Amino acid sequence: MTSTSHTLTTKTLGTLGTTPAMGLGLMGMSALYGPADRDESIATIRAAVDAGIRLLDTGDFYGMGHNELLLRDALQGVDRDSVDISVKFGALRGPDGGWYGSDARPAAVKTFLAYSLERLGTDHVDIYRPARLDPSVPIEETVGAIAEMVEAGFVRHIGLSEVGAETIRRAHAVHPISDLQIEYSLVSRGVEGDILDTCRELGIGVTAYGVLSRGLISGHYSRDNVQANDFRSHSPRFQGENLDRNLALVDALRGVAADSGLTVAQAAIAWVGSRGDDIVPLVGARTRERLTESLGAAGIALTPEQLGAIEAAMPVDDVAGARYAADQMAMLDSER
């Protein structure tokens, strides 16, 4: 085993079927982490596709459409059938960047989709999912509206994001669900238990975002990394003594990773990948350098001893602070 292997094995994501065992999350190229270089972002997306990554995850509210337009440009000249585009919708934002809840009414579902198709320059979205549960709209109505778009050919598969076991069951009863997108990492393991058990019972895959906890456990983060408009400055895990405690855990993981010839990020990604053949890590690389490092986790099969050492270096109960601020945590059906 070496950190330079880029062999992408495969996983299974519900109705989507077989897919490479790593996906690329694009949010950081447009929003929430400070400025990103457009040319480097496009080069990174193309490098990911060239490396065999097929699942590309975006959201219509990432930079208020900027991310979808960026993806459109990056995929110029790429065979559309060689990639799967996953789009999250429903988050309401203002021109000042503010957040105003979610809208998952059937009419809104179809309207958001129409705009996404135009921005992406495609005639279909491979996986379409509400970013958050809209508490004012029964999930059956939202999924039913997406199902109509599947029937019409504008959507291929239906996904969910950050919802709990009961919501998953209700949604799946309306139309088969391909996958649940949810935060899953060494330091965020709330999916384990009822949610993951329910997904597996129903044959639903998991796309795991935040596998490096927004860079916290990447091995590259320091207090000096936060830029203007970086939402991590408001995240409990990145504040004060919480950050000091968490970075101490990262230092412990660094030694364990080095013993296996891995970087911290590679160990963390490989750990998520080890959780099952139905779990696909989404890496949030914004540059080709970080993408190359992430790809170094591909094909790595951690031994039981390595897994034990990684988990002992970063015990989930020792992590300081919640994954989101309190107001955002209150919006997560998956945390209820």
TrEMBL record:
InterPro entries on file: Aldo-Keto_reductase, NAD(P)_OxRdtase_dom_sf, NADP_OxRdtase_dom
Domain of life: Bacteria
Keywords carried by this UniProt record: Oxidoreductase
Lineage of source species: Bacteria, Bacillati, Actinomycetota, Actinomycetes, Propionibacteriales
Annotated protein name in UniProt: Aldo/keto reductase
Keyword ATP-binding in record: no
UniProt keyword Signal present: no
Gene Ontology cellular-component terms listed: cytoplasm
An example molecular function term from Gene Ontology annotations: oxidoreductase activity
